[in-house]
Design brief:
The chain has helices spanning 6-12, 23-33, 82-89, 98-105, 121-124, 128-134, 151-161, 184-200, 228-234; strands at 41-48, 60-64, 75-78, 94-96, 113-116, 162-166, 172-179, 211-218, 224-225. The chain is α/β, with parallel strands linked by helices. The strands form 3 sheets. It has a 4-stranded antiparallel β-sheet with strand order 7-1-8-9, with helices on one face. Strands 4-3-5 form a 3-stranded parallel β-sheet, with helices on both faces. Helix 2 crosses helix 8 (184-200). The longest helix has 17 residues, at 184-200.
């Protein structure tokens, strides 16, 4: 069993495990329980009331966080011909096809978002097992397989704080909502935007309670439970 350090244990003492925290309280607590020397990411973890094994109960989508993620996003674009020029002009960190595929097959993964144009997807498909596990595989459903003329827009979105969410095999969604250094109101805005996007992505096959539980934490700190009603109210979704 993993043993946490003294700083983690001290931070845990600030958390009332029997309490469901309202979003504003939770953000304040995230800041108080952050003890790392680096600017920790604030993370949201949602247990969903859907069956990840059912095709009609999948939850996935893309959101543009209003206040970004607080980090430089390294963008890779799989493309060829004119697409390479367009991607480079739009600010992509890496652009190409075969050479990038070979690098990734060799273990290189120094990027945060990958985008592709349809013409190179047959070449990219062989990377499914590598990129899929990391959540880095371009996919039309997440808006990361686009025509060359749309590369500028999608690259710009990725830079601003484009986050993809998807249900994992244990029916949980994990999402960053910003950094501890963000002002409280900016983290609250990001949190509300995330919840709104996930509620809008509710699948037709979902029955019963859609969001069963929600936890907020920092990258190194303890997790604490959020009050679902307050969370939906803060996102303007309580009556939906």
């Amino acid at each position: 069993m993993e043993k946490h350090g003294k700083k983690y244990q001290e931070a845990s003492k600030l958390v009332d495990k029997s309490k469901n925290y309202a979003p504003e309280e939770a953000i304040e607590l995230a800041k108080k329980t952050s003890y790392a020397k680096f600017d920790e990411t604030v993370e949201l973890h949602l247990r969903m009331g859907v069956d990840p094994r059912s095709a009609d109960q999948q939850v996935r989508g893309v959101i543009l966080l209003p206040n970004g993620l607080g980090k430089k996003t390294r963008v890779l674009v799989f493309t060829q011909g004119e697409g390479v020029r367009l991607a480079q002009e739009a600010g992509a960190d890496y652009a190409g096809a075969e050479e990038l595929v070979k690098q990734i097959e060799g273990g290189w993964l120094e990027f945060d978002v990958s985008i592709a144009t349809p013409d190179v997807m047959p070449k990219v498909a062989k990377l499914g097992k590598i990129l899929g596990r990391k959540g880095l595989m371009p996919n039309p459903k997440s808006g990361t397989v686009v025509q060359p003329q749309d590369l500028g827009r999608v690259i710009s979105e990725a830079r601003k704080g484009r986050a993809e969410f998807r249900l994992d095999r244990t029916a949980i969604i994990h999402l960053p909502i910003g950094k501890v250094s963000f002002e409280k109101d900016k983290l609250l805005e990001n949190l509300a935007a995330v919840i709104e996007a996930i509620v809008k992505a509710k699948p037709s096959g979902s029955k019963g309670q859609y969001i069963k539980s929600a936890f907020l934490t920092t990258a190194m700190g303890p997790a604490f439970r959020l009050d679902i009603s307050s969370l939906l109210a803060a996102s303007g979704l309580l009556s939906r």
